[in-house]
């Protein structure tokens, strides 16, 4: 496979995975590896193709392949064993990265029951979502979910997801497992950026959160990364009267 033949590479990656923009050869190899780890093609402990095989498949210099594998090893995605090869690393590094708390776990910690109402689960070509995910073309995956503490709605989640990293996202039952749980199980978060706003919700969000007119929300806007790729962009809306932030440093 010639790494510069982007159309042919996209075909080989399958119908749900497309290379959106031309990247440096070592970055394309990193993406190739990350996609197979994220979608379960290569599981923890599996040996990946040798450097010689990757050089032949991508038609690049050995130093290009070495750089890609070295950076993935530094990121904790791969583990290189001298004399044996390169393997998908165990995910015991999850606890060292930024913790993104799962709302179902927060509710369970209070001794309450979590429930979810899935409002939207489909593909989207929204331009703002493409920009947030750093993708040139779509579609991307979109979900809107209301989370309940017992029978009280406490969070409206509006999420866009990178289909290259999570190709089976639309097939999941998010009444049984939250998007956060599903994505972290497949590909642990390695970086996150967020902003927090005080905003009044529109009538659609206000209705699903059972809020009074004029009541403000605490809105968390967050992006997360797996390797060099933006994994998800999400807005989390919480009624101010039913939510608070807490933590320790």
From TrEMBL:
Signal peptide: none
NCBIfam families, per the entry: his_ut_repres
Biological processes per GO annotation: L-histidine metabolic process; negative regulation of DNA-templated transcription
Gene: hutC
The protein, known as: Histidine utilization repressor
Entry-linked PROSITE patterns: HTH_GNTR (PS50949)
Chain ranges of the HTH gntR-type domain: 23-91
Keyword line: DNA-binding, Transcription, Transcription regulation
Pfam families listed in its UniProt record: GntR, UTRA
């Amino acid at each position: 496979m010639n790494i510069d033949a982007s159309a042919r590479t996209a075909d080989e990656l399958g119908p749900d995975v497309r290379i959106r923009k031309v990247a440096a050869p070592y970055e394309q190899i990193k993406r190739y590896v990350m996609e197979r780890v994220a979608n379960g093609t290569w599981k923890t402990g599996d040996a990946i193709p040798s450097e010689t095989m990757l050089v032949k498949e991508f038609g690049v210099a050995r130093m290009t392949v070495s750089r890609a594998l070295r950076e993935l090893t530094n990121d904790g995605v791969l583990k290189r064993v001298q004399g044996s090869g390169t393997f998908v690393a165990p995910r015991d590094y999850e606890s060292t990265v930024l913790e993104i708390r799962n709302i179902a776990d927060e509710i369970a910690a209070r001794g309450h029951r979590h429930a979810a109402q899935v409002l939207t689960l489909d593909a989207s070509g929204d331009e703002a979502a493409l920009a947030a995910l750093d993708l040139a073309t779509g579609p991307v995956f979109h979900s809107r979910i209301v989370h309940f503490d017992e029978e009280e709605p406490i969070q409206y989640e509006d999420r866009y997801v990178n289909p290259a990293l999570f190709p089976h996202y639309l097939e999941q039952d998010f009444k049984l497992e939250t998007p956060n749980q599903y994505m972290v199980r497949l590909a642990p978060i390695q970086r996150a950026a967020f902003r927090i706003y005080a905003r009044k919700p529109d009538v659609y969000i206000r209705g699903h959160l059972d809020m009074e007119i004029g009541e403000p929300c605490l809105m968390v806007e967050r992006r997360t990364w797996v390797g060099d790729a933006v994994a998800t962009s999400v807005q989390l809306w919480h009624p101010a009267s039913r939510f608070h932030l807490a933590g320790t440093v």
